[in-house]
């Protein structure tokens, strides 16, 4: 699939924004400025970008506890996200959700999720809405390798299949669920699971934006055409711990430096577009600079912004009560 | 006796019971950790390191890491309990009961009754609860009232390290399914904990101090806040009895009724949401059994009827505080 210049720039901007955002959150967390549980998506950017570049606001995604990347790729406001992570009143969820619950339903982002395997059933519902209301929309559940073993996920495969829903299940396999290797925890294979439920299954190198983007285009087109669900097994790696504060002693000591050097999705993207002379280096550097300063600015703003107050504690529980 | 943290006390109870009885096994997500990975084995010991060090002693045969599949492994623990093992399963956060509740309340809890007294299900589910960790709505709930509601389950809420060791040992030796609630904000809190194994019987409340003016009945971590409030009130010559029921099922109604009758004024402190929680349960008990002894209406200090918020500014307002307990006591004393 040939990407236009605009699409290439958009893809790069998305991935760079996620990286800059996550690196800054890592820094702020390490300095003790961010409370709670924070799970970073750095290293995995090509998956969120590769899928979401095909999507519009009418399409829904459900994310995971590792949700910043999907949120950014689906169009959530970066300033609102940073405010949310700092628990500020102007956060995307008023400071009530935090990192694990970032959502923007208007953008078709149905939420990061604190419950592993919480997303796939919701995505069956979003796909049902799209089908029933004839919006032409599709729905995508991102799940980790760990979440791929959850009953809710496997039940959703079946429901999506028997209802012939425009649903896509993206198994983001970063090698680990917490400290447990996916090589151990996943019985059988993701592709065999897809086959078992009668869905097309694809495996793709998640460090390679172009590979992800191509497969994503195919399964999304299939869903839009009413031909039912698919599963995509994306293999890649995460750069930071399971959550911030994880010492990662379960990983070989050279694993991350090796990945950063040889398999970094942003570096691979740059190399590819520069070699093919699709974009100029100065342009990419300019994007980096602009995004870094934007992330720095929203971070400074978030840190200085007001917290919610007692008046906010009991609002939003119901529409009316 | 040495000072030990809540975390160490729980770890020690598990180790001693595993040494004592080879049928005791552990299972849960990353209870050892590092399964199938290239780095350190026993890399985690649970997300907050509570079970760390047990796998190297007892091996992977007795410390089983599981995939993320609560419905299957909590159910497996129930099935294993009914067929000769004494599993201690870790449901990492009690909020995840949503994924596996059927196996707990329709299966494990009811085996004995449904099967006419023939089943024995010595299952322990250890789980983290409570707010204060900035962990937001799906990782901060109390939920012990939901388990307390179910006949067939026992529910323990240790309020410090000493209680944690003794109640966990009792839970493991108990022949009924026990849900063992660990407050995630207490793991580093220390108390004097004997080195030898000891069991604290279920259904026997601990009266942590005796006073004349007001009886404070508090659950789990709230016991410590109640004691803190009582210390402050003592300076103003208001003396409180503080009761830690230790288990919500069975509940030591006798001690609650006795200590309520002695002061005639009761504050119940429960971190859970205010509807159908332990505070309303105790209040109903007092109204039915001790109405004549009460000099004033029962006061409840609880979390609000709202999910737990993420923002530290909101979460601090959410959690019952020693100051709120103190204010409730002062109001009671002033009003009568
Ligand atoms: C139902 C449930 N069980 C367990 C957890 C705790 N937990 C949070 S993330 C995680 C690992 C998830 O692994 P994976 O799905 O592979 O996603 P990754 O973290 O690798 O992105 C676990 C066990 C949870 N949040 N919800």
Biggest interface and which pair forms it? Answer: A-B, 52 and 43 residues
Helix/strand class of chain A: alpha/beta
Please name the fourth-level CATH homologous superfamily of chain A.
Thiamin diphosphate (ThDP)-binding fold, Pyr/PP domains
CATH homologous superfamily identity of the largest domain in chain B: Thiamin diphosphate (ThDP)-binding fold, Pyr/PP domains
Query: Which small-molecule species are bound to the chains here?
Result: thiamine diphosphate
Strand order of the largest sheet of chain A: 1-2-3-7-6
The major pleated sheet of chain A works out as: 5 strands, parallel
Mean pLDDT of chain A: 97
CATH architecture level-2 label of the largest domain in chain B: 3-Layer(aba) Sandwich
**Helix-residue proportion of chain B:** 25-40%
Order of helices and strands of chain B: EHEHEHEHHEHEHEEEEHEEHEHEHH
Percent of residues in beta strands of chain B: 15-25%
Uncertain ranges of chain B: none
CATH topology of chain A: Rossmann fold
Structure description:
In chain A, the strands form two sheets. In chain A, strands 1-2-3-7-6 form a five-stranded parallel beta sheet, sandwiched between helices. In chain A, strands 4-5 form a two-stranded antiparallel sheet. Chain A has twelve helices and seven strands. With 321 residues, chain A is an alpha/beta fold. In chain A, α6 links the parallel β2 (139-144) and β3 (167-173). Chain B is α/β, with parallel strands linked by helices and 336 residues long. Chain B has two domains: 3-192, Rossmann fold; 206-334, Rossmann fold (3-Layer(aba) Sandwich), CATH 3.40.50.920. Chain B has twelve helices and 14 strands. In chain B, α1 (6-20) packs parallel to α7 (161-173) and α3 (70-81) packs parallel to α4 (97-108). The chains are: A alpha/beta (321), B alpha/beta (336). Chains A and B meet through β4, β5 and α7 of A and α3 and α11 of B. Thiamine diphosphate (TPP) sits between chains A (39, 64-66, 114-117, 144-147, 174, 176-178, 242) and B (29, 68, 70, 92, 96, 99). Thiamine diphosphate sits between chains A (39, 64-66, 114-117, 144-147, 174, 176-178, 242) and B (29, 68, 70, 92, 96, 99).
């Amino acid at each position: 699939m040939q990407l236009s210049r605009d699409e290439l720039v958009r893809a790069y901007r998305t991935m760079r924004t996620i990286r800059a955002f996550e690196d800054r959150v890592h820094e702020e967390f390490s300095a003790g400025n961010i409370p709670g549980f924070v799970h970073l998506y750095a290293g995995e950017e090509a998956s969120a970008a590769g899928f979401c570049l095909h999507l519009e606001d009418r399409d829904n995604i459900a994310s995971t506890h590792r949700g910043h990347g999907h949120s950014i790729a689906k169009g959530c406001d970066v300033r609102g996200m940073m405010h949310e992570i700092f628990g500020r009143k102007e956060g995307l969820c008023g400071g009530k959700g935090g990192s694990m619950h970032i959502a923007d339903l208007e953008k078709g982002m149905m939420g990061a999720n604190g419950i592993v395997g919480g997303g796939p059933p919701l995505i069956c519902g979003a796909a049902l809405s799209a089908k029933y209301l004839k919006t032409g929309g599709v729905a995508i559940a991102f799940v980790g390798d760990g979440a791929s073993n959850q009953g809710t996920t496997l039940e959703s495969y079946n429901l999506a299949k028997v209802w012939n829903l425009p649903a896509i299940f993206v198994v983001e396999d970063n090698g680990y669920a917490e400290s447990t290797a996916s090589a151990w925890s996943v019985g059988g294979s993701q592709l065999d699971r897809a086959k078992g439920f009668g869905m097309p299954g694809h495996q793709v190198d998640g460090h390679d934006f172009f590979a992800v983007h191509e497969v994503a285009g195919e399964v999304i087109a299939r869903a839009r055409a009413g031909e039912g669900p698919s599963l995509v097994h994306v293999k890649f790696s995460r750069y930071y711990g399971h959550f911030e504060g994880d010492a990662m002693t379960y990983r070989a000591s050279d694993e991350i430096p090796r990945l950063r050097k040889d398999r970094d999705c942003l570096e691979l993207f740059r190399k590819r577009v520069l070699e093919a002379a699709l974009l100029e280096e100065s342009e990419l550097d300019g994007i980096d600079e602009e995004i870094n300063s934007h992330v720095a600015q929203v971070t400074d703003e978030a840190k200085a912004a007001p917290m919610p107050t007692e008046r906010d504690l009991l609002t939003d529980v119901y529409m009316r009560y | 006796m040495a000072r030990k943290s809540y975390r160490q006390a729980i770890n020690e109870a598990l180790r001693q019971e595993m040494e004592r009885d080879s049928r005791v096994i552990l299972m849960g997500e990353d209870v050892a950790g590092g399964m199938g990975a290239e780095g350190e084995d026993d890399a985690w010991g649970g997300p907050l390191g509570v079970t760390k060090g047990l796998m190297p002693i007892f091996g992977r045969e007795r410390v089983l890491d599981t995939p993320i599949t609560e419905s299957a492994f909590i159910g497996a623990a129930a099935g294993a309990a009914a067929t000769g093992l004494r599993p201690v399963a870790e449901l990492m956060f009690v909020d995840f009961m949503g994924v596996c509740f059927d196996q707990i309340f329709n299966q494990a809890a009811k085996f004995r009754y449904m099967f006419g007294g023939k089943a024995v299900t010595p299952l322990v589910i250890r789980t983290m609860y409570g707010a204060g960790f900035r962990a937001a709505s799906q990782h901060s709930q109390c939920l012990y009232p939901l388990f307390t509601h179910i006949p067939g389950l026992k529910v323990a809420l240790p309020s410090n390290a000493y209680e944690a060791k003794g109640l966990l040992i009792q839970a493991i030796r108990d022949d009924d399914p026990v849900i063992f609630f660990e407050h995630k904000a207490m793991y580093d809190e220390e108390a004097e904990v004997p080195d030898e194994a000891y069991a604290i019987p279920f259904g026997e409340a601990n009266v942590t101090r005796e006073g004349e003016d007001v009886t404070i009945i508090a659950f789990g971590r709230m016991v410590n806040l109640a004691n803190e409030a009582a210390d402050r009130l003592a300076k103003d010559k208001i003396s409180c009895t503080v009761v830690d029921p230790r288990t919500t099922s069975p509940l030591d109604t006798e001690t609650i009724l006795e200590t309520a009758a002695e002061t005639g004024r009761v504050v119940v402190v429960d971190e859970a949401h205010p509807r159908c929680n332990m505070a309303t349960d105790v209040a109903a008990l007092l109204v039915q059994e001790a109405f004549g002894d009460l000099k004033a209406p029962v006061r409840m200090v609880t979390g609000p009827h709202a999910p737990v918020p993420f923002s530290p500014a909101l979460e601090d307002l959410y959690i019952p505080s020693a100051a709120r307990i103190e204010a409730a006591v002062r109001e009671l004393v002033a009003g009568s």
